[in-house]
Design brief:
Mean pLDDT: 96
Largest sheet: 7 strands, mixed
Number of strands: 11
Shape: globular
Low-confidence stretches: none
């Protein structure tokens, strides 16, 4: 069964770091574009980062550029989102996504607060 299972997240102080993981099963995620989205309280879902399949090119929203890093470990069939210099406005539920296949992770809460 194809699925994406997320881990990581939690509560962190402003300026801190967290790493989210998204493990794929039932398919090889290195063959597909992978994305991270987030949805903050009362906000629409926002695309924050993307990594392409072949070249592994990355793109980021302006709101996270320079602070977040998306990466992929093909041996673990897992995509990561490293989040540094976190701000309270980064508080959201984060989702990984394989857009071409239509698969979503279950979502992970990230709360940035002192």
């Amino acid at each position: 069964q194809e699925q994406l299972v997320q881990s990581g997240g939690g509560l962190v102080q402003p300026g801190g770091s967290l790493r989210l993981s998204c493990a794929a099963s039932g398919f090889n995620l290195s063959r597909w574009v992978m994305r991270w989205y987030r949805q903050g309280p009362g906000k629409e879902r926002e695309l924050v980062a993307q990594i392409t399949s072949v070249l592994g090119s990355t793109n980021y929203s302006d709101s996270v550029k320079g602070r977040f890093t998306i990466s992929r470990d093909n041996t673990k069939n897992t995509v990561f989102l490293q989040m540094d210099s976190l701000k309270p406005e980064d508080t959201a539920v984060y989702y990984c996504n394989a857009p071409t296949l239509g698969y979503w992770g279950q979502g992970t809460q990230v709360t940035v607060s002192s």
